[in-house]
Amino acid sequence: MFLNILYLLALLLASPWLIFRALTTGRYREGWGEKALGRVPILPDNPDAPTLWLHAVSVGEVNLLPMLVSRLEQAIPGVRCVISTTTKTGMEVARKRFPNHTVFYYPLDFTWAVKTALKRIRPTALILAELEVWPNMTRLAKKNGVKVVVFNGRISDKSFPSYRRFSCFLRPAFQRVDKVVSQSDVYSQRFIELGVPADRVVTVGSIKFDGAKTDRAIPAVARVRSLTGTSKTGAFWEGVTDADVVFLAGSTQDPEEEMALNVFNRFSEQFDSLKLILVPRHPERFDTVAKMLESRSAEFIRRTELTEQGGENADGSKRCRILLVDTVGELGAWWGTTQIAFVGGSMGSRGGQNMIEPAGYGATVSFGPNTTNFRDVVALLLGANAAVVVKDEQEMLHFVEKCLTDPAWREELGARARELVLSQTGAADKTVGIIKESCELRVASCEKNS
Hints:
By secondary structure, the protein is an alpha/beta fold. The chain folds into two domains: 31-204 and 426-444, 3-Deoxy-D-manno-octulosonic-acid transferase, N-terminal domain (Rossmann fold, 3-Layer(aba) Sandwich); 219-423, Rossmann fold. The protein is 46% helix and 15% strand. The strands form three sheets. It has a seven-stranded parallel beta sheet with strand order 3-2-1-4-5-6-7, sandwiched between helices. A seven-stranded parallel beta sheet has the order 12-13-11-10-14-15-16. The radius of gyration is 23 Å and the shape is globular. The two termini are 33 Å apart.
């Protein structure tokens, strides 16, 4: 009851901000029946096989699920996997990735919402991506005999002090977790410090390496390469050709897009083959970045203006060399078009974004100095001389210049990045083995009690 009161007070205090964001960005508008009341889809009885509830907060975590779900469905006969997420963008991607699965919003940690959700789903196990350990959910899961497993476990440098500060409230929740499959020994130790018994924590590496694509010839990449279109100003985007050198700044936040634009402008006349692709991290910033480009008189086209039937530039319109990707869920494919990569969220305080995807494609990878969310991946890349840290716009400029003027260096760095990614795979299979063991224990227990 005490936690419910705290949650209600927090929700009440946050409501003006939530309403403002809902009105201005479209976020937080949908799914409140599922979130606040636990009215998730009612699943039909499935007594002969386990139901696994996999939860991923947003886009980054949702993108981890396909490699796990496919392996689970192969490893456990008749298993039923259902998917939940927290954010609107996470829901959009989850629906695209899992059209044949039940997908819904994760309930807030109110007792009534959690009880209702568990009753409707009746899971054998709750599989949580990276963290998401909540007191009422773990308590009620334990009460109902539901195993709780954290996979790809991670507690960032930024969040760990807060978790320790409130450990008196959170420790019981962590103590109830049945298994943590962690990315690194550092993260494993943090889970243990927060209350997970040491014998329930295992380090297997990051599952994100298993999901990285390493073949640029896959259909998803071929599709985005071939997209063409004419912008509102009449400039023509001819797609990505073999002659192009693409500089892609992905998962960016302010002011990283403008920095990338400045670098592109510095070399665009000298290198006619150079193209710039910008992929902001959050959809609500698509229009903001578009206005920035317009204010700088940049000739650009939006991804939503491209089509697969765009055709050739028959009328000789001005060639467009800047693309703003204003869609969700395509960044992984666009990384496969690039030779020069800047991974955003790393110049400010966000802590960086996933640099494994461009590395897997053999792009020449760069990122800013603030990458605490991916400290282990960064250490591996830098240790293998397979990536470059650019501390500011000037260093970004020098990096891109080196890539343009020394193609052999660029290709060698990219090849090392791809080799590193290939050498780190295997965490997904280990994770599935651990989850399978937990599920089998649960099924055996059910059969024994029936």
